[in-house]
Design a protein that fits this description.
- The chain is an alpha/beta fold.
- The protein has 3 domains: 2-244, Metallo-dependent phosphatases (Purple Acid Phosphatase, chain A, domain 2, 4-Layer Sandwich); 249-318; 330-365, no CATH class.
- It is built from 9 helices and 19 strands.
- The protein has helices spanning 23-43, 63-78, 98-101, 104-107, 181-185, 263-271, 296-303, 330-345, 348-365; strands at 2-7, 48-51, 83-85, 111-113, 120-124, 129-133, 157-163, 165-166, 178-179, 191-195, 201-204, 208-211, 226-232, 238-244, 249-256, 278-285, 287-288, 309-314, 317-318.
- The strands form 5 sheets. Strands 4-3-2-1-13-14 form a 6-stranded mixed beta sheet, covered by helices on one side. Strands 5-6-7-10-12-11 form a 6-stranded mixed beta sheet. It has a 3-stranded parallel beta sheet with strand order 15-16-18.
- Strand 2 (48-51), helix 2 (63-78) and strand 3 form a beta-alpha-beta unit.
- Bound molecules: manganese (II) ion (MN).
């Protein structure tokens, strides 16, 4: 049996400018979580660590991040654990690549970085394993990161590293290092360790092909970070177990202001389930009572202490108290007349619906985005 830790998209050096005064803390957390990834590999007794691109957020890095990576790879070496990586889209193997500037392989003898322009491989006879990979040479490319992939040794296990987008018709940009299900299925691999999408995702069961997602929260991620613990059994069966490892969590809360009558209720709704490691994005929508006014920055300042970070976006609109005909706007006027007569002619729930329809219709005709 072969045990692997698969990670990707760590994005060391991310600026986190959207987190304001917490950006520094999250930059540090990324470093801490990277150390936890390596510690997890050691504690779980894996045979090899795979990093499927974007270890770094950019090819320009502070020396301390370079030192951190070398230090952590040395810890793996002490335990006789090899590590393989491919340059991704953020740390691509272009002319100014960090992998050209720093001789990581010279400093870490247990490290293999795939930098050959064509698909190449590294054999580990003691593990009966061959690992295949090809670097991303730039941020954008029409070339599949699986191009030229086929088993080329007599190893029992064959694993590929790739950084790019799994092809989903109509959803995948063509120059985003795209690969297809057919390429995965005809690859002859036992496992494909993927990077680029920022969440754990299985593209294929046979052979198993997974995105690990980042281990720690980075902007545009929608959940806690994780690594994948992958077991390749001698029977050929592959077991993949996501292990949550990130500290920060993220969620999004949409609040329909039609349902909120008072400010304290709004504050309770925003704060529900708050904790010091949660990054929350709140969007206020719909029509609100005109007297219920609060500036989003004030809500963020008052309630933000309960979170790691709180963003409040106000996309709601004040309910118009008096809707009158507006000279020169024929469609709007006709709509107001029709709805007012419908309100007069109806009662109960139907009347409520008609009143709401009048409010939404006017807001839409006035160019507001309320739906
Ligand atoms: Mn990435």
């Amino acid at each position: 049996m072969l045990k692997i830790l698969h990670t990707a998209d760590i994005h060391l050096g991310t600026k986190f400018s959207g987190l304001g005064n917490k950006s520094n803390l999250q930059r540090e957390q990324l470093r801490t979580t990277f150390k936890n990834v390596i510690a997890t590999a050691i504690n779980e007794g894996v045979n090899i660590v795979l990093i499927a691109g974007d270890l770094f957020d950019a090819n320009q890095q502070p020396q301390r991040n370079i030192d951190l990576v070398i230090e952590q790879f040395h810890l793996l070496k002490e335990k006789n654990i090899p590590v393989c990586l491919v340059p991704g889209t953020h740390d691509s193997f272009d002319s100014s690549s960090i992998y050209r500037k720093v001789d990581f392989e010279g400093k870490c003898s247990n490290l293999k970085i795939f930098t050959g322009e064509c698909m190449s491989c590294k054999e580990y006879p003691e593990l009966d394993l061959t690992v295949y990979g090809k670097p991303n040479l730039s941020n954008r490319s029409h070339v599949s990161p699986l191009k030229g992939l086929e088993p080329s040794t007599s190893s029992k296990f064959h694993i590929a590293l790739a950084h790019g987008s799994f092809y989903i018709p109509g959803r995948t940009a063509e120059d985003d290092h795209v690969f297809s299900l057919e390429e995965i299925q005809s690859s002859g691999m036992n496992y494909l360790a993927l990077g680029h999408w920022h969440r754990p995702y299985r593209c294929s069961k046979e052979p198993a092909a997974w995105y690990s997602g980042p281990p720690e929260w980075i902007p545009d991620q929608r959940e806690k970070g994780a690594v994948l613990l992958v077991s390749l059994l001698d029977t050929g069966e592959v077991k993949v177990e996501p292990k949550e490892i990130g500290l920060r969590d993220y969620d999004e809360v949409d609040i329909d202001m039609n349902e909120i009558q008072e400010l304290p209720v709004l504050k309770v709704r925003i704060s529900e389930g708050a904790n010091e490691n949660l990054i929350r994005k709140v969007t206020l929508r719909g029509l609100r009572n005109a007297e219920l006014m609060e500036n989003p920055e004030e809500l963020e300042a008052e309630l933000g202490e309960k979170f790691f970070h709180l963003d409040v976006m106000d996309e709601s609109h004040a309910r118009s108290e008096e809707i009158s005909v507006d000279e020169g706007r024929l469609i709007r006027n006709r709509f107001v007349e029709l709805m007012k007569s419908q309100i007069e002619d109806s009662e109960g729930e139907a009347r409520e619906i008609a009143e709401n329809a009048l409010q939404y219709g006017i807001a839409l005709l006035d160019g507001k985005e309320v739906l």
